[in-house]
Batch of 4 targets.
Target 1
Amino acid sequence: MTRTRTRISKAVIPAAGLGTRFLPATKATPKEMLPVVDKPAIQYVVEEAVSAQLSDVLMITGRNKRPLEDHFDRNYELEETLSRKGDKSRLARVRESSDLATMHYVRQGDPKGLGHAVLCAEPHVGDQPFAVLLGDDLIDPRDRLLARMIDVQEQYGGSVIALMEVAPEQIHLYGAAAIVPTGDGDVVRVTDLVEKPEADQAPSNYAIIGRYVLDPAVFDAIRKVVPGRNDEIQLTDALRDLSHRDDTGGPVHGVVFSGRRYDTGDRGDYLRAIVRLACERDDLGPEFRTWLRSYVTEEMQE
């Protein structure tokens, strides 16, 4: 049954992690500020939210994350320098990040997991559905995943998660969903969720990736979650509770995604993301692809 819902306008981006997999680069620089070609990874995520018409962005931060706020703020001294030089191109690129959206920030405090980070957004979000975008997952702007998820949430109500089929040996790195089909080809009903299961205990090979559209009932569900390993509160456990409901915050649906996703939380995938995106740039791609072919050919001959 189609339900009428207020159009979602708020996005939440958890960004309080320490980025230990990228040490020592992240000792003094937030992992979200590591460049992907010539923009920090976090800017791609904010741009994705804006492209889905989410103009209000709340970032959940922690200690040593001030550069995130600075990046999305105006830098008048730099802008004035570029303006005096007549460098209109770089001036526009500098101003782009500060003009993207209305940005808000709140500190998580104790790093108690993704569920706790989302709970920190409750005073800002209120009683309306909202989107959550994890900064480690970059979705290619040509793939309208988040916009599709918002459409599905407006149609079915409840919460919507992004799912991607992965190899069985990789499922232990993700939350895994038990699913049943619906009348829509890319939409499934989620009947259960398990956080990071072993391959032989996983309900399917459909993994949760870092995009969510959540009903505000998730906040009460998070408060009921029993902390697990490292005293962390898992969002997956709260969504599992909602997936068992038909009302009062349920159900949970999944959008099965088969598009272009770049995992910048893994060092190898981070490098591959840079290469792929650089190759596709009009200003960098032709020369870079020529060099890359030459380099690969030389490596294969050694």
Target 2
Amino acid sequence: MDVPPIEPLPGAVRRRLVGICLLRATATTVVLVLAYYLLPLDNVAGVSLALSLAAGLAALTGIVAYQVRAIIRHRHSAIRAVEALAITVPAFLLLFAATYFVMERSNPQHFNVGSLTRTDSLYFTVTVFATVGFGDITATSQAARMVVAAQMLLDLLVLGLVVRQFLGAVEAGRRDHRPRREPE
């Protein structure tokens, strides 16, 4: 049984859907960045860093699971997948930026610069994610190197598994939303 291909969207409809997708992703990213800069991360002394990071990664896993379901359910799953990726990657990066910021606040010896600002932490996180190497900021303690190594491994997972999950969800969504042929 042949299933007819999905009809292409008219240009104006596609542009509107992509525009809405990009607007939502941008708004979500702006809210996440504002939260990163405004939350009182300097006052979390006594909170287990490992537990906080694990909770953040669990929340991120929940976000990814939600995004996969949303992609499958959306009539235009590929457009929704772009939005999902545009939300998930900044959330992932900001989680690690916050982790590095809190690490440095608990012990300034974790990094070579003495005092990481939130912007320094975000810069360092993006440097690790982009695999462009280090220069001005490096992890100096064993604990910081372990967290950086964990981020590097998780970067590969985000780029590999999460993108694969989103692409699989696009295919599932396309299958679910294809027009069905009437039985003859």
Target 3
Amino acid sequence: MESLISIALGIGLAAAAGFRVFVPLFALSLASYFQVWPLNEQWQWLASPFALMILAAACIAEALAYLIPWFDNLLDTLAVPLAGVAGTAVMASTMADLNPAVTWALAIIGGGGAAAVIKGVNAGGRAVSTATTGGVANPIFSIWETVSAAFMSFLAIFFPVLAVIAVIILAFIMYKIWRSVQHFRAVGRPETTTL
């Protein structure tokens, strides 16, 4: 049961990494510093005060940088692969009592994959926002992403099973949006869908 909970925690934090790379890392560092969640032996450094300060500064810098229109699009080109790495790292760090081969397979596929897909969809949404509003709406989109990352991180740490359910709902919504965009591109008009 503990292994399943740690996998749920990892998936929730990986999804949060798809919104903001450093927010779930900071949340996990904070949770492990206050001994809310234990980490694998190789990841104990994440609970140190130094790691906590560095990740807090990185969170703030990332959130502020995404408020600058056009610069946020440049950040997305770097953040998509970084989100995959962060998703892999947070999932690997939370895995308890699993074979290393299983841990890394789940971390790369589940954690890295979830984070990269969510970040890719968000990057695409920001590109559309930039094209349609000239970047004026981008700060609102960025604030929504930061809040989503913080909420998903909170949910993953305190209610891991609910975090997995939220990830499934989020995946369904993203799929419906993707289908609508594909339909719009094919016919030139929006598809009416119900979520």
Target 4
Amino acid sequence: MDEFNYNGFNNEENEINSFGQSNNVNGMNINENVIETIAEDVNENMIENVAVDVNENVIDNEKVYDNGSADLKAASYYSESYTKPKKKKSILMQMILVAVMSSILSGSIVGGFFIFGVPALSPSVQSIFRNNTNEQNGVSGSANGVGSDYYRKVVIENSDSSVVVAIAEKVGPSVVGISVKSTATVSDFWFFAPQDTESQGSGIIIRSDGYIMTNNHVIESALSGSTNNLIQNAKIEVILPSDPDTPYPATVVGRDSRTDLAVLKIEANNLPAVEFGNSDDIKVGELAVAIGNPGGLEYMGSVTVGVISGLNRTVPVTDGKELKLIQTDASINPGNSGGALVNAEGKLIGVNTAKIGGGGYEGLGFAIPINKAKEITDSLIEYKYVKGRPSIGIQINSGFNKEIADRYGLPEGVLVYNVEIFSAAYKAGIQKDDIITEFNGVRVKNYDELEEQKNKYKPGEKVKLKIHRDGRDITVEVTLDEQK
């Protein structure tokens, strides 16, 4: 009962959408009388000659190109480096001619305007120029108007960008790659043949003398059962961002399947250890930056940005157990597991571990709160196990449920499958096939309810268990052990 098996989480790629802003600048109306005066000085024959030289094929070709562009924009994905269709040589020359003549015409109009029109401008027209200039410089209008708000927004956005850059520079060197290589036996129709497998994840340098924090599910495929021993031909390597071509062999200091955490050790010193934050102080809506290796070491050191979306989210794991995690919309993908979730100060607030997959779900990533993670990893480093957890010392039959209990006329509870020798249950006289129905006076109907009550106590404390055995109820006293 005290063993908690964890098989990891299923992940899915996120897509990051970006958007831009554009500003429209309003022109001003020019006195029609001034323009008419200037236009009279332009030779009408010049305009007629230009019109004659324009070939109708130019218009036809531009219509074709416009249609092509519309189809392109309507597509789901398209390349921004799209090459425009080439024009025929004759059409190109005609276009050049039109452009030259248009330039001459425009130059004549503008030049005439400044020579003859500007002196004749009325004070009212000049005031329009002044007002427009002031508006573009943010001078006119209320200080609390739309224009001033817009410029403050730009400053905030630029500031956020600078913060993320600083975070990446500070934390990036502390997030490492982890490569796990092992050999699996694969059936090849007639024979069973060994096959090499490799998985990759992320880790965080938590001490400068070579201690690395990661997820248990990142490394467990290379380990034998619930031990810290490598299986035959397996190895775990750590890759530092500063020296990606030199993998460091890693040993497993300790791991905890219940919280999906593990600690590795490499022979290295003066490593850039991460700075710890306080996950109890974080608030929904504040900046969150995830750093890791999504998709493997090829994308090592990837940075994604979001916010804290929720706190104390109860997330089920593959064997039906649950963890309370931080929710974020910062993209977390396969390979990010074991990586860092940091706040605006570049302090570690969580260990990236999971993402909800499936159609229609985006921005649902989860991380283990760092206060809990640090408590676990500190204990693993010092004691090689998580100190202070109570243990009864039994294994249960998880298939026993209310339906089966009703069928055989038994009470609903926790069916004991095996009693560990010299454990607390063994010393209290608990036997195989006993059904535990109460824990210290509280009714328990399944494993989760029993675990919830047991974890309220500490090793060495005495509790009473009500047990159904051979058609009758008995009560035994148990002195809780420490789980190791």
